[in-house]
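Give me the fold.
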Amino acid sequence: MSKTLLGRLLVSSAALSIAACGGGGGSTGPAFIPPTIATQVCWNGATIPITENCPPQPTPAASPAIFPAITTDTTFATVGLEASAIDTPASALARDGFSVRYEAATQSYLIDLPSREEFQFVNENEDAGFWHDFAATGFYEGTIVDVSKPRSTNPEIQLSYTSYGISTGYYSSDFSFFAFGSATPAAGVPLTGTASYDAIVRGRPLDSFGRIDGDATFQFNFGTGTLSGHFDPILEHDGVVTDLGTYNFVSTVFGVGSPTFSGGLSLAGAPSQGAFDGRFTGPAAEELMSRWTAPYRNPSTQQWNEMFGIMVGKKE
């Protein structure tokens, strides 16, 4: 067979093969359909083949176990005061909008402040007395929140049913003090006898960036429904510590079996009185918490201004 004839036969055979497969446009055989691959949507929104594994979910940030005995959903009794800025009058302090609760499903403590939406409290760092968190809802809306540890090892005060927090706007000018704990039911308040409670004072003046510390004593007569005591604040500012005097409890309100109390704060020579209100915490009124406002004489300017904060204490 000649090479020319062999070449013609090969070309004809190839053409027939292409036609049989639908090639060359000469036929309309079935189109090739790729097999369907099942997919899945992962937690991060990515769609991947079902034969592959989704990436592991990041471990959620954990709240510290502020009250280890609390394991079910719990909303704590909370009292607080918040200033929108320095030089806020005491009468304009925010008193509502404070909330602290424990969410068992996520093992989270959720804090709500007047100037902030509710956020999960996260332990970013800590020391012997506090857990510290930077709660940010936007670049200019961050808040530094410190929460006291209710532990027997706390060097400030050793509590079991009560804690307190301090918030400071990182980019804003608001600041607050709040206390929270397990409220004493009315049935848990003693109906006889007397008790003295020693408390620590924490707060800030409203005309400077100082700090208010100190202590207070609450003396209850449960049988007669009476309350007396005194409040002894100390100002720390620019490395100088100033004793601000003794404020006596006056015009107190406390009844037999009442889980709450209130009163005035009277300092000799002051142009006005301060005020406090609070409640017992613990199953049998073992502890207490209160918020307060009071006038004070600024030692730098010798002018009267105002201060505010919280008190937390326990039965002696």
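The first strand starts at residue 39 and ends at 41.
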